[in-house]
Design brief:
- By secondary structure, the protein is mostly beta strands.
- The protein has a single domain, classed as Beta Barrel (YmcC-like fold).
- Helix content is 9%, strand content 56%.
- β18 and β19 (242-246) form a beta hairpin.
């Protein structure tokens, strides 16, 4: 593997695991940048843009912070939805918060549980729901595609490695337990590397790595850019006629 390939591989930050994908000595941990990723995703249904997700991913003092905000195209002046996810450098959930104009929720670890508190406009007292799940459970909340990017990074760190300059991943899908706070539910999901594919994004053909993300009731295709820190570039949800593209 060339020095350039090793350097590019080492720059991939895997949030929640504090693991740097590296083609050489895995004990070596380069200093991580504070800003990991930032930008926006356009969400298109039947070719029409319906939502814009603005996000940032930062890592500082051993804590990874993932922030996201949703704005509907038809109502740009509305408060929209916001979320903030905090994880330790060992991959443990510290706090997750979500809110819209009238409701909010918070998820925090509580010994062997994850505890969710839900506040609605109709009730002054928050409702609580415990989940018997470890603190390293991935958050995969509704409508936030940056959470899918973080899960992809976790998969690539834990189950893939560089071999002779090529990315090699564990054979077959890998299962993760995830929590969907807005639905107040948990579920298993599976991720698997498909391989390189040529896709057209904003009129330009690019060669990206495809991952499949599947659950009991959904099947998504994700494309990440291995030449740019494995950033999520496109998501296709065929059953919903939905495409998500990085702006």
């Amino acid at each position: 593997m060339t020095l350039m390939q090793r350097t590019r591989w080492a720059t991939v930050v895997v949030l929640g695991c504090a693991v740097v994908l590296y083609g050489g000595d895995k004990k070596e941990k380069p200093k991580l940048p504070s800003a990991v990723d930032a930008g926006s995703f356009g969400v298109f249904v039947r070719g029409q843009r319906v939502v814009t997700e603005t996000f940032s991913v930062q890592q500082e003092n051993g804590v990874s912070v993932v922030k996201a905000k949703l704005k509907e195209t038809s109502n740009p002046g509305s408060a929209g939805q916001r979320s903030e996810l905090e994880m330790s450098d060992s991959g443990e959930l510290l706090r997750y918060e979500w809110s819209d104009s009238s409701n909010s929720l918070e998820v925090t670890p509580d010994n062997d549980f994850l505890r969710e508190k839900i506040t609605t406009a109709a009730s002054s007292k928050p409702a609580e729901k415990p989940f018997l799940m470890p603190s390293k459970t991935a958050i995969l909340d509704n409508n936030f595609f940056v959470h899918r990017e973080v899960l992809a990074w976790r998969y690539l760190a834990a189950d893939c490695h560089m071999e002779s300059g090529n990315l090699k991943c564990k054979q077959g899908p890998v299962e993760f337990g995830v929590l969907v706070p807005q639905d107040q539910t948990s579920m298993p999901v599976r991720m698997e590397l498909v391989g390189r594919e040529k896709v057209t994004i904003r009129g330009t053909e690019r060669e990206l790595l495809r991952l499949n993300l599947k659950g009991e009731a959904f099947s998504w295709a994700l494309w990440v850019d291995d030449k740019d820190q494995f950033k999520l570039m496109r998501v296709l949800i065929t059953d919903d006629n939905t495409e998500v593209v990085r702006d």
